[in-house]
Design brief:
582 residues, Dipeptide-binding Protein, domain 3, 30% helix, 3 domains, D-Maltodextrin-Binding Protein, domain 2, 18 helices, alpha+beta
Length: 582
């Protein structure tokens, strides 16, 4: 349930099928939002709620789930789709293949205007309408089963475009050569047309009611195919300069930015709070000490073979089943690239990245033992079933069982550390956990007094990615250059020495209009080196609502705000799960 609900209902907790969720967005509605989904500059107002997707994509398992489609079938390079009979626009129109076709036309015309149509994933006639409810998507090659294809081609774009609302613009844009300057001028006019698209007509779980400069009011769309899962009648988005302050002062009940997650900060929350929003993932991440700021001593994790061996030691399924709040295992290779520099990129770049044979180190204890024996200072004693430190290191004397020191804060990270201790001890390491507060953790981290630290950070940005690389290359044991095959992952291809700083300098100086291969080379090579040098391990993650519980917040899983946790997934959340904190 939520903390006190401002100006909504007499019952602030919305236990019954009535009431309004009061949420907040930290941007002015009038200045930064558009009612036109195709606006090139402004964000779509409340698009997560106003629109639904044909599919939902689950990133941890790399799986598609049909939502707006009733059925689908993949055969080679073709994807057959049957759209739901009970999916409606807010003006009463059924969602049909004509609407989806308009969206694809916009998508294809833009590719033509950018000179990128031939490199697109779909054929020139890539969306073939068969009936009002069935169509076939035709790809240039066999359909790649990857998160990039799924999110860009089926989930995020293109949204269906309501045929009634878009008819005139679609006809006008279609009458002009998309490669001409005239078409670009027309497209600019189209994307800046607010009058034609206000009030907005969506096809999602809530519909537009009214707005002011400071708030947007929406109500449940009862004809939506998932309407029966929503136990509220409406929601209001209030626009504040400071969402956190608005939440603390009780002006709003829900916010989509992070609240304090450290135990020492929980006192900042209202006494009766139960729920908050967190616009990021929660993850089980192990960040290795690769030798930072240490001179003279050595540690097991300075050796890349040991880092890889540790990753092979973990059984992700068993690991996540031991997690207290329902994490899911990561089942595809981690390339280290932040989502912000992957999402929305061209089909050509995504295809290049998808072709890279990144290594997924699934549970394999025999392989872990081989890597330990291949390391410089460690071996695996089969008779004793222990890892032995041959020449001594910062943790162990020569000939003793090798020790791993885990650094952790005293929150959900400690739960992760204890599971790591159990699995590594069973394999043959002597494991010590140093559970400390945030201040001591920072001091030990800066002093290099650990082998790996547990983390739950889910948001990675390009600056943080680059900062990790600078630190990695500053570490005394790591060479500044890496031998990278091109294309990465191609054992039969050419290879060259790769220096991160030089490569990044070239990346910054690459013109914006350069080919994808020119400017994407840095990102793909960086991802390859990241995957091969293993500066950290991502074992599992969970999103949105599940993340709240990891931060020790009480979550009523049946609360309506939980159903709106993530676009397309709010009505998929398992109702039988109820989070509780002891």
């Amino acid at each position: 349930m939520l903390a006190g609900c401002a100006d909504s209902t007499d019952d602030p907790h919305l236990d019954d099928d009535e009431g309004t969720i009061v949420s907040a967005i930290n941007e002015p509605l009038s200045a930064d939002y558009s009612w036109n989904y195709y606006n090139d500059v402004l964000s779509v107002a409340a698009d997560d709620f106003l629109y639904s997707s044909a599919f939902v994509y689950t990133p941890n398992t790399d799986e598609l789930h049909a939502e707006g489609v009733a059925d689908y079938d993949i055969d080679g390079n073709e994807l057959w789709l049957e759209y739901r009979d009970d999916w409606y626009w807010h003006n009463g129109d059924e969602v049909t293949t004509e609407d989806v076709s308009i969206g694809f036309d916009y998508h294809f015309w833009l590719q033509e205007a950018d000179g990128a149509r031939e490199s697109g994933l779909l054929e020139d006639d890539g969306f073939v309408v068969e009936s009002d409810k069935t169509a076939t998507m035709v790809f240039r090659d066999d359909i790649p089963q990857s998160r990039f294809w799924a999110t860009d081609s089926l989930v995020r774009e293109p949204y269906a475009a309501n045929r009634t609302r878009h008819a005139d613009w679609h006809d006008e844009l279609g009458s002009v050569d998309a490669t001409s300057d005239e078409w670009l001028e027309l497209w600019e006019e189209f994307t800046n047309d607010e009058d034609q698209f206000y009030p907005p007509v969506g096809n999602g779980p809530v519909e537009y009611v009214e707005h002011s400069d400071t708030s947007l009011t929406l109500e449940r769309f009862d004809d939506h195919f998932a309407a029966e899962t929503l136990d509220f009648t409406g929601m209001r988005l209030d626009y504040h300069e400071d969402e956190f302050l608005a939440f603390i002062e009780g002006q709003i009940d829900y916010t989509d930015v992070g609240m304090p997650v450290e135990p020492e900060d929980e006192g900042l929350m209202p006494d009766d709070y139960d729920y908050y929003g967190q616009d990021q993932l929660r993850q089980a991440v192990l960040k290795f000490n690769n030798g930072h700021d240490l001179h003279g001593d050595t540690r097991p994790t300075w050796d890349v073979n040991i880092r890889k061996a540790i990753e092979y030691t973990f059984d992700r399924d068993a690991f996540t089943s031991a997690m207290p709040y329902g994490y899911e295992p990561l089942e595809f290779p981690w390339d280290g690239l932040p989502d912000e520099i992957v999402e929305g990129q061209s089909d050509e770049f995504l295809a290049m990245l998808d072709d890279v044979d990144f290594e997924t180190r699934d549970h394999d204890e025999d392989r872990a033992k081989e890597l330990i024996d291949a390391s410089e200072n460690y071996s695996y004693d089969e008779s004793e079933e222990i890892v032995v430190c041959e020449n001594g290191d910062a943790n162990s004397d020569p000939g003793e069982q090798a020790t791993i020191q885990i650094l952790s804060r005293q929150d959900i990270r400690l739960d992760i550390a204890q599971i790591c201790e159990s699995e590594l001890s069973a394999f043959g390491w002597d494991v010590t956990i140093n559970a400390v507060d945030s201040g001591a953790e920072s001091e030990r981290r800066r002093g290099g007094e650990y082998d790996f630290k547990t983390d739950t950070t889910g948001v990675r940005t390009l600056p943080s990615h680059l900062n990790d690389w600078v630190r990695l290359e500053d570490r005394q044991h790591t060479p500044r250059t890496f031998e990278v095959p091109w294309p990465p992952g191609d054992a039969d291809g050419d290879s060259h020495d790769w220096d991160h700083r030089d490569a990044y300098s070239r990346f910054l100086s690459t013109p914006a209009d350069a080919s994808d291969e020119d400017w994407g080379e840095y990102l793909i090579e960086a991802a390859w080196v990241w995957n091969q040098t293993v500066p950290s391990i991502l074992i599992a993650s969970l999103q949105d609502v599940e993340a709240l519980a990891t931060d020790r917040f009480d979550v009523d899983y049946d609360h309506p705000s939980v159903r709106l946790a993530h676009q397309g997934e709010w009505f998929r959340l398992p109702e039988e799960i109820v989070w509780s904190v002891e």
